């Protein structure tokens, strides 16, 4: 019930290449669980923004009244990685030793924001639901921790996909829950939901 909403939410998106990227933003209104209406869209060319500083942007909504106020900071990724199983970041004994020293008891209070990190190996899925008319699916896997999100590549025409990827997240809150969701890629349409698991960090 507001024409001037304040969300104050922060989202982290990760870049792993120098490709040209556009951030697409949509604003929706929801009357109830069944009815939604698009209130406008706007786009930000991330490559045109100055790096290592917070950019305050007031973006007019295209073809609709109103604007969106955002703070966008482009900075180097720290503690986040995607790698193949054969080059797992924790596979190097020297790196494991450095990590052990970094999180030993005497260094516990050196950096209060450095809670730790989570490494997830996404190996495969088995007996997924068929989402296509051909009796197959085009599955990919999305991992979410807090407002961080990473995803695997798509394995086409397969109900038993193997991804064999290793994902590393910095942990900002030990009470966060790792959510792993499998989707079916559906071209230009929104992906179809194939299943989900939720793993509280405190259970690991």
TrEMBL record:
Gene Ontology cellular component list: synaptic vesicle membrane
GO annotation, biological process: regulation of neurotransmitter secretion
Keywords: Calcium, Membrane, Metal-binding, Repeat, Transmembrane, Transmembrane helix
InterPro entries linked: C2_dom (IPR000008), C2_domain_sf (IPR035892)
Residue ranges occupied by any C2 domain in the UniProt entry: 1-59, 93-204
SUPFAM superfamilies reported for this sequence: C2 domain (Calcium/lipid-binding domain, CaLB)
Keyword rRNA processing: no
Membrane topology field: Multi-pass membrane protein
Cellular compartments annotated: Membrane
Sample GO molecular function, one term: calcium ion binding
One Pfam family it belongs to: C2
Transmembrane as UniProt keyword: yes
PANTHER family membership: C2 DOMAIN-CONTAINING PROTEIN, MULTIPLE C2 AND TRANSMEMBRANE DOMAIN-CONTAINING PROTEIN 2
Family affiliation: Belongs to the MCTP family.
Protein name, per record: MCTP2 protein
Species lineage: Eukaryota, Metazoa, Chordata, Craniata, Vertebrata
Gene encoding the protein: Mctp2
């Amino acid at each position: 019930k507001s024409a001037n909403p304040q969300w104050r939410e922060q989202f982290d998106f990760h870049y792993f290449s120098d490709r040209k990227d556009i951030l697409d933003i949509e604003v929706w209104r929801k009357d109830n669980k069944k009815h939604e209406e698009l209130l406008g869209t706007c786009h930000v060319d991330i490559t045109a923004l100055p790096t290592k500083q917070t950019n305050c942007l007031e973006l007019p909504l295209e073809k609709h009244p109103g604007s969106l106020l955002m703070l966008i900071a482009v900075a180097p990724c720290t503690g986040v990685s995607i790698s193949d199983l054969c080059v797992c970041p924790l596979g190097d004994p020297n790196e494991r030793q450095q990590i052990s020293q970094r999180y030993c008891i005497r260094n516990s209070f050196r950096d209060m924001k450095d809670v730790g990190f989570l490494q997830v190996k996404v190996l495969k899925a088995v007996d997924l639901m068929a989402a296509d008319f051909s009796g197959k699916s085009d599955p990919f896997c999305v991992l979410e921790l807090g407002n961080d999100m990473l995803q695997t590549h798509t394995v086409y025409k397969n109900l038993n996909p193997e991804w064999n990827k290793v994902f590393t997240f910095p942990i900002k809150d030990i009470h966060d829950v790792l959510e792993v969701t499998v989707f079916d890629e559906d071209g230009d349409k929104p992906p179809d939901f194939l299943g989900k698991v939720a793993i509280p960090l405190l259970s690991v």
